[in-house]
Give the backbone structure.
Amino acid sequence: MVFNTDILSQNSFELTGNRGFGNENISLSNSFEVNPSSYSLLKDWGLSLSYGGEFSDQVNSNLYLISISKRFSNHFISLRYTPGYQKDFVINTGESLFFEDSTTQTLSSKFSYKELFGLAYSYKTNSRINVGLSLRYFTQDFETQFILPVFGDTNYIMTDSKTETDNFWKGDIGISYSPVKQLLFSAGSINLFTFGESDFSDENKIYSLKKDKAAQFGISYNPINEFELNFIYETNKSLQTGFNSYFEFGNHTIGFGLTAFHDEVQTPFFAGIIPAVYYSNNLFGITISGVKYFSDRNAAQPLSKFGEEGLTNIINNRYSFDKAVLTATFALNTIKFQSVQLLDVKIINDIYPTLSEYYLDYPFAIGKVVNLTKERVSVKPYSRIEGMNPDNIQSPEIMIPGNDTVEVKFFTLVPETFSEKKPEISYADFFVTVSNDEPDDQFQKAVLINGNNSWDGRVSNLKYFLKRDQNFSLAYAKEILSKYKAEFDTLPNVLYNFYKTKILFNEVVKNLIYTSDPRASAEYVQFPNETLKLKGGDCDDLSVLFCSLLESVGVETALVDFRETMGIRHVNILVNTNLKPEEAKLITQNDTKYFLRKNDDGNEEIWIPVETTSLDNFNNAWNTGIEKFNKEAMGNLGIAKGTVQIIDIY
Amino acid sequence: MKLFKTYLISFICLLVINGCDKPAVTELTQDNKQRLQVEILAKDTNDEYYSADSSGVVDDLNGYTNVVTLSGIKITNGSTTINTAFAQTIFFDRSRPVRRRNGRLIAYHTRLLGNAKFNSVEARSVPYTIRYNDEGTVQEITLGLKHILNSRFQGQDFGYRYNSSVAFSFDFLLGLGSNSFNFDIPTPPEITGSVRIEGKRNNNTLKAKLEWDGKNYPGFQIIVAASVSGSDRIFPLFRLRTKDDGELIIPSGLINQIPPRFNEFMFYFVRRTEFHSERNNNDFYVLSQSIHRVDIDIP
């Protein structure tokens, strides 16, 4: 980049003053002057207008600019038309016509400089860095009147004119970097490249807009909340400095600012100031600003000086007049204003279809959500797993304080009809919203959906396997028990549960053998009908089978989870005989063969452990079961230590 | 939202309609450039009426009743310069106009009222004849007599000196005026100029750069005249009023537009003073000029 100190005007001059962090405020016009990386908080479409008056000997009103902007994700594009970015000069050529009637006509030249169109693009690479590019279209006309004598039947003189026009594009790039929230650095080129210029006659060449290359560097600093200091230096010996102070209440912002600017050709040192007041909300922003110069602008200036210094800025130069400008920006959002942002989502539980209702109590994912507003909002999280959830599954609402970040739990529901034979990778869509309309933000993450027989290893979750075949188990158990109708008729009612257990166990084990889990590395649990069909299973399969059969006929059961003992984890069951302690002798004379538990009414009942892998007969299974239970749960204080856990089915 | 958009579009339309003022204009001044005023002289270069005579006076004198003109003239053609002086007095009879057929005034007849003297040298009374084109026919008419002195004629050198004065006196004929009168006519400083022609006529690049010994004399002007080779008729085309600062580039448009049949240009550098003098209830318009005419052949 070439730095040239001979160009003399303020490239970064804006009619609304320097706004620094205020770039992220919709009250701004879409100005390209400060830095092409200017990044607006507009969510969708934006429309800006700057209208004002220029105070010379008279007041001229101007539509300075009209622009339209659009954001596409992190990309921001702005187009503007600037009919008021124009500066005209009239030069008395010194020539005049003298007519017969002693009247005269003075000849003049007119230089007209215009910036007509602009196109800007910026990209937010991350929360700290924006980069941008601007293209601006200029045109300059040099119209010179000259004397044209006409010789014919009657000779006379008249004036004619010739015009030289030059249209060209100017391009610049810029970058802004905010290492911390209170600090913003920016850098940009000045006249990085131009193209499309025309050749000029020597006569007009010196009056052409100066396009020397330079650079600008800016810094904005928030020393205290809602107050910022701004400074921009241009390598062409220009600078501007100022402050903005603003007050925010809810979604409303009211602020004021003052910018002073300096360049080498204007006097005094600070050639002028730009006071500005502004208001903005989510829908629109209004800025009233003015440009006040400290030197007289109405006196005629010498052309020779104009030729020496040249013109680098159309709206701020030695010849500019005081201005008052009203700038309005409208946010024409067709997309929703984003109140919260879903920063990340972590899958904490894979999906095991059989566990269904488990995911209503325990989240399968946790998201990190930030409140982008300054107000407390109620966030509704919901999710949908592709291929599993036909509808969104809403999770409980959560309140998030303004600008705070919290963790949000996502729950789900496995439909009863959902079935998955093999594990598959699917995608879960996570949404957060503060209203019932479109989500404020969403996130997608891969999630593993296991097969129907897959189990997460938690014994407590085995109950979901036994519930699944409840109807089958009921029919199967009833068919067996019906064969023993005569015996049940002679039994006292208090022994019904004990004998149901004994009969079902003895009948079922006749056809079963113990087989270890067919999948060594994955937890695999058979449903009751599968265990019967396959004529065997491991401890969890057999426990699920017997619990399912017994529960189906009204016998209360519980799973006993013997946590890892010498690397082996084991499951068997407890069966509630519904016998009172004083009725124990009806089933055993040995007080160590049962276990007392209080029911919901606080009354003790006799529970017996049954080792479901002991497949010869019920008594042996009971004996084995009580032996292991007494040793692990009671003797080793397993229940107290937590190494043995009793899990009620219901 | 719909209402908001309606208001918004209305507001924009209002601004666009009312926002069409031109921005304020800044006036820049030509601090170094010479001021130049251009006046066309010959209304018809096919009409001899608009041609110049040897008096050096290119002005239309019809507006005056009694005229005294005095010219010190240098004529340079190539390397040759000749000097002459010309003085004349004309008394127009405003009651006897001469008109074209279409009624347009050409001139007035003249009267002979007495004898005029310049530096005590009596002027000759000669017929004052003009030629003009009247509806395609060249007409010649003698308006009467006028008093002239021309230093190029032997015995008529009335001692003209630049930057000095010439004593003018007039004696009325018996019965026509009560008394004689006289007054001095100042003469402007001598002027010497040169002309450099550049470019070519056929591609409209002809440029005339004029230089002279600038003296900031207030009554300075340049006359651009042209003639056809072989003709003694000189048509003064433009009068250029500018500062007597010694330099002028004539706008190229002026000389490039001169019809090509004119192959000789004459540039009159003129310092002049003019005033009115009231004598015996007669108003005299007095014009005194210092002229350097430079003739240039245009190929």
About this structure: Chain A touches chain B through 56 residues (CB under 8 Å). The radius of gyration of chain A is 42 Å.
